[in-house]
Design a protein that fits this description.
Elements: H1 3-94, H2 97-100, H3 102-126, E1 137-140, H4 143-165, H5 167-170, E2 173-175, E3 185-190, E4 193-198, H6 199-218
Parallel strand pairs: 1-2
Antiparallel strand pairs: 1-3, 3-4
Helix pairs in contact: 1-6, 3-4
Length: 222
């Protein structure tokens, strides 16, 4: 073997060794990168699974809350409907002479309102908050009540209020020709000021106070 052949063989040997080392290093890098990617993929998979679990829990909680809200709303709507019905029945019962003595109720409402509004006007005049007395007291009922009770109710109320109001004032109390679209009760106009004494208005004013008792009777375990 000549010297040139030896040099060529040495170069080839060194090149093979360098190639082997480079290949091994590359393989080691690839293995390390693969392990890194595998670890990252595992971490990402765990993170995705965790987020998915949290999202599922949130969906379940939202569904539970929405179901509970829907149940509460349904129960509330049912309670309201039953309370509305109870007050409607009470309004009908008030109109029954044999139960609520309806004419006497109308008379009492009108009498107490006439006395009260007159006393308040006197106080306002004394304080300088008003300059004159009420010129007209006009009683308005629905068509049926006006025909059945109107004149007798106004006449009885005027008599009952006479001692508190005096003759001049009770002479200004009269039954109006017009009628009102109300279920029952009456409306009292003091000049242009309206006092709503309809059954609906009266029951509504009482509802805040007595509704809890009505609910307790309708839903004793609620």
């Amino acid at each position: 073997m000549t010297g040139l052949d030896k040099i060529i063989n040495r170069i080839l040997s060194d090149a093979k060794e360098e190639a082997r080392l480079t290949l091994e290093a590359a393989q080691a890098d690839c293995k390390r990168m693969a392990e890194d990617y595998a670890a990252k993929a595992e971490d990402e998979a765990e993170d995705i699974a965790l987020r998915a679990g949290e999202a599922a829990e949130e969906l379940v909680e939202n569904a539970r809350r929405e179901t509970e809200e829907a149940r509460e709303k349904m129960l509330s709507d049912t309670k309201k409907a039953l309370v509305d019905e109870a007050f409607e029945l009470a309004k009908k019962e008030l109109r029954k002479t044999e139960f609520g003595k309806y004419r006497e109720l109308l008379t009492a409402l009108l009498t107490s309102s006439l006395i009260d509004v007159t006393a308040k006007r006197e106080q306002a005049i004394a304080k300088g908050e008003a300059t004159g007395e009420i010129g007209e007291y006009r009683v308005v009922m629905n068509e049926a009540d006006r025909a059945a009770w109107g004149e007798s109710v106004v006449r009885a109320a005027r008599c009952a209020a006479y001692r508190h109001m005096g003759a001049a004032r009770v002479d200004r109390v009269h039954l109006a020709e017009e009628t009102a679209d109300i279920d029952g009760g009456l409306q009292l106009y003091c000049d242009d000021v309206l006092l709503d004494l309809s059954l609906e208005a009266l029951l509504q004013s009482l509802r805040t106070e007595i509704e809890p008792r009505v609910l307790a009777m309708l839903f004793p375990q609620a």
